[in-house]
Amino acid sequence: MGKEPWLEVRDLWVEVEGKEVLKGVSLVLPRGETHALFGRNGSGKTTLLMTIMGFPAYKVRHGQILFKGEDITSLPPYERAKRGIGIMFQRPPTIRGVKLREMLKLCAKDNGIRIEELAREFGFEGFLDRDVNRGFSGGELKKSELLQLLIQDPDLVLLDEPESGVDMENLQVIGRMIRRLLQKDTHRPRTKSGLIITHTGFILQFVPADLGYVMIDGTIYCQGNPQEIFEGIQKHGYEECISCLRRIEE
Amino acid sequence: MSEKDRRIRPRIEDFRPAKEGHIPRSLEELSPEEWARLKEVGIEPEAPREGEFFQADARVVHCRTLPEGLELLPITEALRKYDWIEEYWWKTVDRDKDEYTRATDEDLDDGYFIRVLPGVRLIYPVQTCLYIRTPGVVQKVHNLIIVEEGAELNLITACTTHPGVRSGFHIGVSEFYVKRKGKLTFTMIHNWADETYVRPRTGVRVEEEGTYISTYVTLHPVASVQSMPVCRLVGEGARAVFGSVVVAPRNSYLDLGAVVSLEAPNSRAEIISRSVSTGGESIARGHLIGRAPQIKAHLECQGLMLSDEGAIKAIPQLDAYYAHVDMSHEAAVGKIAQEEIEYLMARGLSEEEATSLIVQGFLSVRIEGLPAELQKRIDQAVALARQGL
User: Which pTM was predicted?
Assistant: First the structure.
C-alpha cells in the first residue's frame, strides 16, 4: 500500500503560445507522497502544473501524463478534476455574481463534506456569501483556493506557490489547510498526493515533502532530499545546481 | 416593410383587437398548461400577497385585495369611481407620444389602478399579471399607481402569453406617482413568446424623499421590446433606480433604457443594465439629466456577447446644467473571459456548465433597496433561464 504511482509524467514536451517551454519532463509521484518543485521564474514549473491539469493553452507536443494508470494526456480539465486532480491557482480570477458558497457546493458534487463547518474551522465563514475571489487579499485568495480544494477532495493536489503574498499569521492557517489536504496528520497510510511549487521553501516547514526536484529551462535537472536541495539553493543559488553532480543522467 | 422594420415598428393594424379574444370568465377556466406557464413567471395562487390582479386579453378576470389601505381596481372601474383621477391621467406620459399611446387612449383594454393610502406600508408584494391568451391580438392597457405620502408598495408584474400563443402585441401605459417619503418598488418579470411585440410606455414622478426602484427582467425569446421610461425626481432627496436584466436570444430585439430627470437638490438616480446576447440585439440606453445642484447620478451598462450573431449597443448619455453635480457612467461589452471558464473547469464543471454559471453570475445584479422576496424572484428567474442558455 502507498507506493503505487499516482501520477506519472513521461518525457513531456509542451508548447505555450508557440514557444517550447517543457523539454522532456519525467517524474513519478507515488500515492500518499508530496513532492516539491524548485526552480527560477520562467523555468517551466507553472507550465508543468497547468499541463497536468489540462488547460488548452498548454499544448503537449510529445509525451504522456498518466493518472492512476490511465492516460489522461488528451482529457479536458473537468474530466481530470472528476478523476481526482485538483489545482490551487496562484492568481485565481473573480467570478462575479457567484457566491463562494455556491462555488463550494459545485466543488462538493454531493460528496457530503460540510461546507459551513470547514469554513468555520479555518475562519473563513464570513466569506461564504461574497462573490468568488472578489476583493480578496492575497491571504484570503489562498484560503479561498484551499477551501475549494478541501471540499473538492482531490487525490492529487497541484499547488503553485501557496505561500506567495501571505503574511506569517496566515501562513500558519494555510499550512494547516494544506496539511489537511495532504493528510499529513493521519497515521493511516495516506492516499493523497501533492506536487508543490515553492520559491521560499517556507511551506515545507508546515508540509514536509518526500522528494524535491529542481527545474531548469524546462527540464528536471536533479531530484533528491527536498530539504537538502532547498538549503543548497539558498546557499549557492541555481548556478550551483547546474554544475551539481547529482544531476539526472540525460 | 422589411422584417427588421416590422420588428422595430410593429403595426397595430396587423393585430386583432384584444376585445375579440377568447377571454375566460374566471381563473377556473385556465388549463393546467396555462397555469404551468403562469408559474414560470412566478404566479402562484398560494403565495402570500397583499393583492392580486389578473387580466387576460381585454378583461380583468381576477382582482382581489386584502389589507385596509390598499385599493386595487380595474382602471376602467376606477375612472368611473373617482373624478380626481383626471389629475393623474396622462400626466406623466404624453397621450400623443406615438401611435401606441394614441391607440391606447382611443380604445382602452383596461389595466390596473393601485393606490396605497398615506402611511400604509405593505409588507408582501401586490401581484399583477397581464396575459395574452388569444393569438394575434393587440392588448392595450393603461395602469395608474399612486403611493401616497409615507406609504410603501412592492409591486410585481409578470406578463406572459398562453403557451400556445406565439404572436401578440402588448402596449402598456403605466403612470407612477410616489408622494413625499413614499417608496415603490416595481419588478417586472416578462416571459413573452417569440412573435410577441411589447411597447411599455412609462412615466414616473417622485416627490421629496420618495423612492422608486424599477427592475425589468426578460430572459426568453420575444420579437421586440422597446421601452424608455421617463422619471422625474421633483422633490428634494428623491431617489430612483432602474435595473434591467436581459437576455436577447436569436431574432429578439430589445431596446431598453430609462431617462431620469433630477430636478431637485440632493436627488439621486442610478441606471444599471446587464445584457447578454445569444444571437439577438440588445440596446441599453440610459439618459441622466441633472437639472438641480447637489445631485448624484450614475449609469452602468454591462454587456456579454455569447455569439458572433446579434449585437449589444450601450448608449449612455449624461446632461448637466449645474456645477455641483456628480454624474458618471461606465459601460463595458465583451465576451466571457477564458480564464474564468478554465478556472471553473478545473473545479469539475464542463465548459457549458462553466459558461452558464458565469452568465448567471453576470445577470445576478443586486438592486439596493429591493425587498429580499423580489430579489429572490429575479434570481429564480435567472437560474431557470440559465438552463436554456
Answer: 0.85
